[in-house]
Structures are given as structure tokens and as C-alpha cells.
Amino acid sequence: MTDGTTGSGRWLRRHRARPGAPRLVCFPHAGGSASSYQGWARALAPAAEVLAVQYPGREDRFEEPLAASLEELADEIAAALPVTAGRPLVLFGHSMGAMVAFEVARRIERACPGGLARLCVSGRPAPHAAPASTVHLLSDEALVADLRTMAGTSDTILDNGDFRSLFLPTIRGDYRLIAGYRPDPEARVAAPVSAFCGTDDPHVRPREVLRWAEVTGGGFDSRVFTGGHFYLQDRLPEVVAEVARLLVP
């Protein structure tokens, strides 16, 4: 359960205030929302204050139009993030969220050098190494099949007509952002980067996440967890334990 929005209004949901603790800002996957990180606040208490990004077009922002581009999304989020001297700021992004977090990290470092303690990325190749995507062009049936493969499930909710009419446009819109993203091949962050992935992720292999080492001027480390693309749901205690370790300066 969240204790509401932060002073940054639309963009951030705070899952329990922890005054003075390091801030962990979490970026959801394509189609995901801030509520997907509710369990993290409990698991990381009292080591961190967890803020989850709420993209437009979902949950309490369902009526808002989706972002026009991933870069525009990053601009808005970076402007909303609180950067406080003496309070470490760590970003964690999964899948699409990894790319958004990377772009937000770049903007934070331009505006406030040294303001970012660490960037954690998950379930996504490095921006300059990611293959081109055309998933947003698939038919509804093919898109649902891709979601089943990625989730490793035959969940019948994907066959529900109401679900499809409500959520497939948002998911397709997020995939469109991914397809339209053109990262600067020379882009780097100064903060250290930690990259995570699942052993059986059909969209990213452990060796591919190692290329995140090429986009940081700080240290780099990686961790592979047992599971598929959404390993972090099944391995939550292990994942948050690793994140907690990384929160220590």
C-alpha cells in the first residue's frame, strides 16, 4: 500500500516514507505500473525509501495519453525526481524501465553531477546493443502470444476481451516507445551500473547484459537469477537482498 504521491505529483508513488534513508526509484516494464513495486517497500524497510514511477495511461493515470517518445518520458520523470544532497539516489529499471532509467540517469547527472549513486538495470540489453523491435506492429493475437512467451504463462486473463481492449493499447504503446528509441551510441553515465537478468529470459541472455559495462564510467557488476523475463516476481527476496546490498555506499 502506498502513502500517496510525492511532491512530484503525477509521476511518483511513494511506498512508505523513510526520512533520511537512501531513495530507490523503480521504473516498471512495458505495460507495468507503480503498483508492481509495492512489495519492495516492505522488503527493503527500513533500508530504503521506495518511489515507483507511474507512467501515463495506466492505473490512476489511465485517462492520460501515453508519452510521445521514450526521451520525452525521461525528460518528465527526471524533472520530477527529488535529488537531495547527502541522500543517496539509486534507480532500478526492469525491461523497458531499464532504458527509461538509463535516460533519466543521464539527465540527472547533467543537471546535478554526482547526484546519482547507482543505476540498476534488469531484463534488457544495453541501449546500444539492443536489437530493433517491431513487436508493436503485431496483430493482437500475435502480441498476446509474445506476452505469454515472455511471462512464461498460459494465464487465461490474456484471453479476456475486456482485458485486451483496456490494456493491449497501453502495452502496444509502450512497445512503440521502445521501437522508436534511438540511443546516442556515445552516451554514458558516471555512476556505477549493476545489471540483472534471468537465466531463461527469452528476450535477453546473460552475456548481453554484460554490455552495460560499456555505458558507465563507474564500476560495473552483474547478477543472474534463476527464472525467465519476470524472474524478479518469483525471486523477490533474492532480488531485494541484492539491491539492499547495492544501496550501501
TrEMBL record:
Keywords: Hydrolase. It comes from Streptomyces boncukensis. The lineage of its organism: Bacteria, Bacillati, Actinomycetota, Actinomycetes, Kitasatosporales. Belongs to the thioesterase family. InterPro entries: AB_hydrolase_fold, TEII, TesA-like, Thioesterase. One of its GO terms (biological process) is lipid biosynthetic process. This is Thioesterase. One of its GO terms (molecular function) is hydrolase activity. Residues 25-247 form the Thioesterase TesA-like domain. PANTHER family: S-ACYL FATTY ACID SYNTHASE THIOESTERASE, MEDIUM CHAIN, THIOESTERASE. Pfam families: Thioesterase.
